[in-house]
């Protein structure tokens, strides 16, 4: 798999959808391609957030360490972006991500990612839009779950 | 050094000068002969004057001297000569001419070599003397002396003086006689014309030097200005950090620009002056023939001078200007050099120097600095004249562990410096073991006292070199006699030292270790106690091993390599590392590493330079790889231009990721454009080389541009064989090839152990491999060996490659390993931070057991570990607390008790 195919994967990520191909290429080029064996951790809850990952192949699960034992909260598959919240909010990892089968991912270094955001407003706007969308979704979910407006 | 350059030269080289002078005189007859012979060949052999009156033979090689008429005109025949025919005479004379030409050449060669050697020897002497003087600079001078200025003086400014020395005496004598002869000849032909010529020469000799005086003044200014420029440049380079932090590059540029203008201005004035003088000089030289033609012609017309004489005079005059001109040039050079010499001597003036102490004499003396330390009425003033220590009295018994503290100011530090015999102005009396401190010979101070100050002083070299520096006071062995003979002779002739750095200088006896190995172990242990063992281990992993010097370690490392490979296989982790295999392309290594399959030891095979190495390129051509690699480079350049184009120049991402530097992006764009064209305006040889260079650091799994497929890797592998063969054929020894079962002396310990490249595509690969490697090193007890290799780690200029605690540790251990009677630690612990400083202090107390340790304390937190605490009060008085009192008694009581 080469840079070009990784760029295609990145395009599938909602956050990067509207970004210029040459910028995506830069993002891909400055990222590392890493292979995880089954059961290997991308990162663990409480680690310092140093990178985001785009899963190129395989799948992984997001696990929360609860006092009662690990709880699986989400499943990730191809072209999913994970760990980006941590590097944007500069807080430790809020969950553990484990590969559930042999997977490969693009590791986007935090420093590089922030550097690119500060350099290309287009990318910042894309990220903001994505975050705003998520917030809206979350609000909607909250609204639908709560019995009546507070 | 002598005030006058000529006295200095004469004092040190009169023998050589006289020899050269005599040889010059001896060469003159031969020179005269070679001038005279052509006349003889033409007259006697070719025109046949020797065969007039029908003679068939003429004399050849007859040697006789005819005295001039005023001495009686007697003729002495020494050798009758041979009677030869005309043709024989011609050839005989011609060969004789050739012989004299050769003899002259030989003379000239000998004289030039002798003059050169003389100059070089004097230069060596001067440089050495100046350096010796620099070692004696007083502390006050050192505060104002710029190191680079001193370096410029010793290196550059002495150079022209050396060039001049060979000519200093010989030239004026030689040229002077020549000129005087010509003048005498003219005078003999016609007194009047002679007087005219003499007058013009007189004007030349008087006026020109006068005009050149201004030139000298300017020359002096130029010398000082350019010396300051050198000093300023090195200041800026040394202080580059501050320049960058405050972004003052513009100001620095302006400042240097201004200096350059001043320098230019001076130089320009020198030029104008110089050419005016030259013009005048030429004019005067041309004026004389005018007089000759006008007045000489007048005399001739009047019949007071015959035409033949006039022609002879003019001919003789033609001989006059060249030596005269050279003489004037010599004089100019002399003044020039004298100015330089004066400047140099002034820089090293006596008042800036410490008194000289006779080394050999002091060598014999030695004394133990153990016994009472008595201080009487000690008063030390600070720079503003107020008392740091006022009339203090102390009585201590050495050895002791002494803590020194001060309520205010740096009295404690100044006292520590005083005890360490650093230059401190004081009044009163300090005696150690009955000896007046100021009268202890410097060599004893060097051996018996050590001082570790705040600023670590490191010299370029390894950590070991720096730590052992204090043991290098005198050579312990003398080097091989035979090899040294010539060098010793030269040293004697130039007043240089007879010691050589090749001798073993490390004084093991003082370190207490039985061998260098044991000493190494001790240093490693001490560094460990300072908490630098891990650093040392890391340095060791990054260091190289010479298998000839450490055959055992080399062998064991190869063993460890095999064990690591086995272990990785056993644990099913072999995909973490791709090992170097002579018969396989290593995907995780760069293209260059794969082609070279070894470690370069010269710049020409390292980095981008490899693409320009002719032998490497020859191998690529042979393997028919050049074209493909250039095409590959073009694809890389294209991608780089594509993805990095929008980034501003100097963006950090460039340096981190790009194959090209930010400011090269435009150039590569142009190269790509040219590559698309053919013929004129197409890609040049240099363009291809630059593209080729781009492919060298390429690693497919890391960069993922899809440029290397299986077929290309196979071809690169074939190229590897070609590279090796062709480099070998050309006798290149600047690459050490990887061999699976032996140690590569040019590769780091880490690379030798791993013998491959980590597969970065696997998560955490590097960390996992590191852990397994550390495990094996532990199992095979290789750690100590690797730590010893770490001692070879280079500290860089002024130790800049080390961190500040590392520097401080090296500085401190230098004092510890020589086991001084008195170890003074003044601020050297500051770099360690509080918790580590405690460990260092413990180490110091253990290491100085039975000897004196004097530590300047910034606070009294650890005062209880000293036998004695000396405290200087704000008023400058000293109080002493012994351990019995110091430990438990509250401070106030202790102080009052001591004050009683």
UniProtKB/TrEMBL annotation, chain A:
Q: What InterPro entries does this protein map onto?
A: cNMP-bd_CS, cNMP-bd_dom, cNMP-bd_dom_sf, Env_Response_Regulators, RmlC-like_jellyroll
- Which PROSITE patterns does this chain map to? CNMP_BINDING_2, CNMP_BINDING_3
What's one GO MF term for it? DNA-binding transcription factor activity
CDD domains to which the protein is assigned, alphabetical: CAP_ED (cd00038)
A Pfam family it matches: cNMP_binding
Domain of life of the organism in this record?
Bacteria
> Where is it found, in Gene Ontology cellular component terms?
cytosol
- What range(s) does the Cyclic nucleotide-binding domain occupy? 15-134
Protein name according to UniProt: Crp/Fnr family transcriptional regulator
The taxonomy runs: Bacteria, Pseudomonadati, Pseudomonadota, Alphaproteobacteria, Hyphomicrobiales
TrEMBL record, chain B:
Q: Which UniProt keywords apply?
A: ATP-binding, Membrane, Nucleotide-binding, Transmembrane, Transmembrane helix
Could you tell me where the Basic and acidic residues compositional bias lies?
881-894
Stretches assigned to the ABC transmembrane type-1 domain: 78-329
Which parts pass through the membrane?
18-35, 87-107, 182-208, 279-301
Q: Where is the ABC transporter domain?
A: 638-899
A Pfam family found in this protein is ABC_membrane
Question: Which Gene3D superfamilies does the annotation name?
Answer: ABC transporter type 1, transmembrane domain (1.20.1560.10), P-loop containing nucleotide triphosphate hydrolases (3.40.50.300)
Q: Does the keyword Disulfide bond apply?
A: no
Top-level lineage group: Bacteria
Region Disordered, as annotated, extends over: 881-900
Q: What is this protein called?
A: ABC transporter ATP-binding protein
Record the organism.
Enterovirga aerilata
């Amino acid at each position: 798999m080469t840079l070009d195919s990784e760029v295609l994967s990145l395009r599938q990520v909602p956050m990067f959808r509207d970004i210029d191909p040459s910028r995506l290429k830069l993002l891909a080029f400055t990222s590392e391609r890493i292979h995880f064996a089954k059961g290997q951790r991308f990162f663990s809850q409480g680690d310092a957030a140093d990178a985001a990952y785009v899963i190129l192949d395989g799948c992984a699960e997001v696990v929360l360490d609860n006092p009662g034992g690990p709880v699986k909260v989400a499943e990730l598959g191809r072209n999913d972006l994970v760990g980006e919240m941590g590097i944007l909010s500069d807080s430790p990892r809020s969950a553990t991500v484990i590969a559930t089968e042999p997977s490969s991912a693009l590791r986007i270094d935090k420093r590089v990612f922030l550097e690119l955001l500060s350099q290309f407003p287009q990318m910042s706007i894309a990220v903001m839009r994505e975050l705003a969308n998520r917030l809206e979704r979350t609000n909607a979910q909250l609204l639908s779950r709560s019995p009546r407006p507070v | 050094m002598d005030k006058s350059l000529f006295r200095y030269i004469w004092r040190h080289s009169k023998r050589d000068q006289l020899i050269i002078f005599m040889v010059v005189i001896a060469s003159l007859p031969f020179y005269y002969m070679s001038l005279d012979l052509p006349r003889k060949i033409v007259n006697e052999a070719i025109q046949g004057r020797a065969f007039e009156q029908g003679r068939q033979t003429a004399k050849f090689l007859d040697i006789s001297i005819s005295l001039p008429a005023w001495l009686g005109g007697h003729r002495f025949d020494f050798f009758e000569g041979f009677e030869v025919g005309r043709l024989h005479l011609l050839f005989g004379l011609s060969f004789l001419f050739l012989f004299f030409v050769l003899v002259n050449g030989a003379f000239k060669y000998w004289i030039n070599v002798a003059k050169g050697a003389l100059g070089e020897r004097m230069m060596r002497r001067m440089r050495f003397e100046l350096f010796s003087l620099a070692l004696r600079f007083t502390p006050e001078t050192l505060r104002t002396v710029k190191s680079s200025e001193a370096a410029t003086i010793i290196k550059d400014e002495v150079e022209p003086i050396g060039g001049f020395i060979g000519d200093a005496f010989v030239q004026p004598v030689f040229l002077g006689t020549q000129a005087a002869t010509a003048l005498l000849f003219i005078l003999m032909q016609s007194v009047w014309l002679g007087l005219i010529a003499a007058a013009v020469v007189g004007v030349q000799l008087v006026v020109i030097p006068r005009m050149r005086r201004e030139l000298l003044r300017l020359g002096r200014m130029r010398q000082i200005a350019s010396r300051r420029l050198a000093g300023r440049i090195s200041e800026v380079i040394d202080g580059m950090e501050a320049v960058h932090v405050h972004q003052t590059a513009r100001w620095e540029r302006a400042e240097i620009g201004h200096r350059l203008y001043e320098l230019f201005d001076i130089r320009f004035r020198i030029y104008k002056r110089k050419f005016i003088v030259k013009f005048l000089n030429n004019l005067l030289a041309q004026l004389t023939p005018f007089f000759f033609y006008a007045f000489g012609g007048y005399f001739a017309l009047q019949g007071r001078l015959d035409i033949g004489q006039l022609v002879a005079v003019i001919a003789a005059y033609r001989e006059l200007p060249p030596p005269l001109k050279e003489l004037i040039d010599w004089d100019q050079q002399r003044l020039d050099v004298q100015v330089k010499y004066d400047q140099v001597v002034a820089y090293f003036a006596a008042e800036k120097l410490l008194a000289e102490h006779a080394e050999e004499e002091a060598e014999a003396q030695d004394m133990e600095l153990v016994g009472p330390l008595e201080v009487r009425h000690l008063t030390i003033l600070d720079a503003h004249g107020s008392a740091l220590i006022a009339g203090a009295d102390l009585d201590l018994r050495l050895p002791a562990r002494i803590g020194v503290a001060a309520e205010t100011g740096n009295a404690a530090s100044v006292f520590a410096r005083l005890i360490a015999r650093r230059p401190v102005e004081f009044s009163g009396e300090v005696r150690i073991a009955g000896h007046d401190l100021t009268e202890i010979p410097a060599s004893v101070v060097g051996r018996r006292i050590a001082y570790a100050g705040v600023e670590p002083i490191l010299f370029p070299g390894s950590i070991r070199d720096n730590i052992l520096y204090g043991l290098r006071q005198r050579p312990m062995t003398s080097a091989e006699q035979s090899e040294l003979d010539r060098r010793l002779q030269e040293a004697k002739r130039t007043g240089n030292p007879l010691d050589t750095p090749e001798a073993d200088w490390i004084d093991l006896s003082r370190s207490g270790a039985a061998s260098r190995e044991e000493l190494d172990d001790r240093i490693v242990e001490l560094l460990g106690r300072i908490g630098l063992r891990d650093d040392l281990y890391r340095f060791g992993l990054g260091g190289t091993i010479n298998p000839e010097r450490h055959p055992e370690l080399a062998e064991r490392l190869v063993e460890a390599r095999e064990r690591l490979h086995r272990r990785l296989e056993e644990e099913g982790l072999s995909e973490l590392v791709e090992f170097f295999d002579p018969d396989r392309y290593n995907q995780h290594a760069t293209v260059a590493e794969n082609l070279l399959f070894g470690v370069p030891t010269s710049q020409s095979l390292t980095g981008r330079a490899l693409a320009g190495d002719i032998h490497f390129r020859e191998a690529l051509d042979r393997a028919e790889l050049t074209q493909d690699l250039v095409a590959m480079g073009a694809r890389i350049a294209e991608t780089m231009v594509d993805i990095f184009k929008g980034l501003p120049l100097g963006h950090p991402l460039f340096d981190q990721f790009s194959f090209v530097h930010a400011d090269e992006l435009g150039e590569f764009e142009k190269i790509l454009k040219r590559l698309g064209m053919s013929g004129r305006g197409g890609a040049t040889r240099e363009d291809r080389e630059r593209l080729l260079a781009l492919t060298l650091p390429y690693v497919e799994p890391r960069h993922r541009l899809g440029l290397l497929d299986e077929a290309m890797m196979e071809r690169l592998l074939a190229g590897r064989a070609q590279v090796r063969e062709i480099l070998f054929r050309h006798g290149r020894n600047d690459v050490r090839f990887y061999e699976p079962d032996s140690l590569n002396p040019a590769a780091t310990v880490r690379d030798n152990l791993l013998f491959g490249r980590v597969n970065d595509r696997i998560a955490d690969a590097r960390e996992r491999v590191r852990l397994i490697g550390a495990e094996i090193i532990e199992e095979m007890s290789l750690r100590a060996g690797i730590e010893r290799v770490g001692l070879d780690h280079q500290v860089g200029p002024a130790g800049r490659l080390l961190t500040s605690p590392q520097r401080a540790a090296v500085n401190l251990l230098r004092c510890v390993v020589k086991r001084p009677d008195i170890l003074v630690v003044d601020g050297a612990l500051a770099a360690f931070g509080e918790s580590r400083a405690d460990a260092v202090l413990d180490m110091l107390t253990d290491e100085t057991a039975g000897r004196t340790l004097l530590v300047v304390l910034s606070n009294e937190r650890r005062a209880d570990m000293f036998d004695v605490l000396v405290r200087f009060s704000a008023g400058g008085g000293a109080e002493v607390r012994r351990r019995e009192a110091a430990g438990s008694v509250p401070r106030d009581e202790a102080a009052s008790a001591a004050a009683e």
